[in-house]
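Reviewer has doubts. Consider these tokens.
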Amino acid sequence: MRPVAALLLSASLALAACQREERDTRPQSALGSGEQPTPVTTLEPGGQRPSPTDNKAASFEANAFHLSEGKRLFGWFNCSGCHANGGGGMGPALMDEKWIYGSSMESIHATIRDGRPNGMPSFRDKIPDDQIWELAAFVRSLSGNAPSSAAPSRNDDMMAHPSENRMPDAATLGKSP
């Protein structure tokens, strides 16, 4: 009997020393403990327009040289690879009136500089800020939003007729007013 009593005593001591392990079987969040996703941009579709930056947009938009430089950069940076020649590629068309993130110069500048989710990359550290403003002026002019005092930016073969400021004056045509 003594060996049985000793065996029972050692088994009861071993069981008393064991402790039940508590486990949380709920799945862990993908973000971890208290982490929040990092926002790509503060701009939302239909949200507020970005604040204007000391009227820099107007100086680029109303200048024919900046529009033509923007056109050159549009081809040079291969924007037409996604947006085609003015729109219609895998990127959104730029010749229509439907702008998800706004059609102001500041909004277009922010889109080029910061990028947009699902396709548009950020060019913040790749293109100088003045060139981004020139690109924004050209992109805005594609939808006909450029001031009439600046030369249009579309190619002549895309135009229905030459713009008013590229037409010869009446004296050159031999017509009198």
In short: The radius of gyration is 32 Å. The mean pLDDT is 74. DSSP finds six helices and no strands in the chain. The domain at 65-151 is CATH 1.10.760.10 (Cytochrome Bc1 Complex; Chain D, domain 2).
